[in-house]
Amino acid sequence: MSAYYDLFEKPDVNKTGKQQPLYARFIPKGTIEQKEFLNRVHLFTGISRSLLEGAMAAFMDELRDCLADGWTVELGELGYFTPSLSCQREVMEKKELRAASVRLRGLNFRVSKEFYKELDKKMQLERHPQSASKSESSVPLLSVEQRFRLLEEYLQQYPCINRAQYARLTGRSVKQAVTDLNLFIEDGLLMKHGAGRNVVYLRKNS
């Protein structure tokens, strides 16, 4: 069994107009939903499904309560969960912003070194079999949340992205890419720099 990857062009940050080197990105085979995941754990451990379901529900409830109460939560060798915040408006001085204008943006997860090392040992990578032949129209439709997740992963590696790169990343047309990117700007998640064809998009500092 192998995990799939594909190769994509790096952003032309310096606007040289030259072809850029490629980078590798993980290509998921799909999503293992909770029911199937619990079935897999049940078969491996012999623990009853009802007990696993109850334990998972309890984990989620307690995780949510601890995070809401202001804690970073460690789940063994898996890693750490920490809330991520954003400001609803830009300010220059701390006294200009009240707590009511600060909102939960998301949840950061930092994997532990032990979990990462074990995963790295187990993962066997191979090029996605449809990589050379797939067309843009064959890319499965992604939800807005999935598209933003891909964008976040991309911007964790590179400082900015342009419309064409976002379109290739998500399987959208350039026109649809502009719509998505403007939506993310309106939501306070991105900021735009430049004009015309030289526009790039960056993560907005929270």
How would you characterize this protein structure?
The protein has 206 residues and is α+β, with helices and mostly antiparallel strands. It is built from six helices and eight strands; from the N terminus they run ββααβββαβαααββ. The protein has helices spanning 34-45, 49-68, 113-122, 144-157, 163-170, 174-186, and strands spanning 3-9, 22-27, 73-75, 79-87, 102-111, 125-127, 190-193, 200-203. A hairpin with a 6-residue loop joins strand 7 (190-193) and strand 8. Helix 5 (163-170) packs across helix 6 (174-186). It is globular.
Treating each run of at least 4 consecutive H or I residues as one helix, how many helices?
A: 6
Rg from Cα: 20 Å
Main β-sheet description: 3 strands, mixed
The low-confidence parts are: 133-139
Strand order of the largest sheet: 2-1-6
Distance between the termini: 40 Å
Query: What is the chain-wise order of helices and strands?
Result: EEHHEEEHEHHHEE
Q: In percent terms, what proportion of residues is strand? A: 15-25%
